[in-house]
Amino acid sequence: MAFLTNLDISQPVEPEDYVVLSIRFTKQTSDLYQSDMDRYAMLPRLVAALKDLGYKVILYSTATSEHEANEKFMHESLGGIVDGLVKYDGTLESFKHLVTKAKALITMRMHPAIFACSWGVPSIALERRSKYEDALSVVPNEFQILDPRETTFEQLLAASESLINESYARRKQRFDTVRKLTEVQKDYCHRISQTLSSNTSD
């Protein structure tokens, strides 16, 4: 149902000259820890390359529990070269305001990729797990999923550049594709609501 955020805007926004990077931080006991370390190794090079191409890079912290880790990563691993850190404030508004105007989103989390796609914004999910592919399969060809264990830095950079250089027409096409899906979801939710209301009144 996260695709329903498509209804929050009437059309895609003309992008500005920045890319949003959203990182996940896992505990060492997590099964995802080692694969996440592979991602961390790629990201400083990616940020530096995007900066060399003339783009700003803004870090987005998706959870209050990760704000401190994002700050540490920004200063220690990225050398402070990113152009800012925006923190989740308990609402979707700060993320929407940031991402709708971005050239692209590069994320290690599923929901940011879904939200970005719903607003027409091209995104790369640096993750290959079944839940990502299942969730995003309803809009095939509207996003990229890269497995960092099988993706070289050069491939990640090339994929990022491809999305950054995407035309507004392609962004609008993605947005319209999701809009058709959300209209179906909206109608489905409405019918469920009517059914529940009817059962309650009985």
What does this entry look like structurally?
The protein has 202 residues and is of the alpha/beta class. 50% of the residues lie in helices and 11% in strands. The chain contains seven helices and six strands. It has a six-stranded parallel beta sheet, with helices on both faces. Helix 1 crosses helix 6. It is globular.
Count of DSSP strands: 6
- Stretches where pLDDT is under 50 for at least 5 consecutive residues are none
* Physical arrangement of strands within the biggest beta sheet: 3-2-1-4-5-6
Give the percentage of residues in beta strands. Answer: 5-15%
Shape: globular
Mean model confidence by pLDDT: 86
Indicate the structural class.
alpha/beta
- Discrete helix count: 7
Helix-residue proportion: 40-55%
List SSEs in N-to-C order.
EHEHEHEHEHEHH
In whole angstroms, the N-to-C terminal distance is 28 Å
Please state the CA-atom Rg, rounded to the nearest Å: 18 Å
> What does the main sheet amount to?
6 strands, parallel
Write the layout of secondary structure elements.
Layout: E1 18-22, H1 33-52, E2 56-61, H2 67-77, E3 85-87, H3 93-99, E4 104-107, H4 110-118, E5 123-125, H5 130-136, E6 144-145, H6 153-164, H7 168-201
Parallel strand pairs: 1-2, 1-4, 2-3, 4-5, 5-6
Helix pairs in contact: 1-6
Give a quick summary of the entry:
The chain is of the alpha/beta class and 202 residues long.
Structural key phrases:
alpha/beta, 6-stranded parallel β-sheet, 202 residues
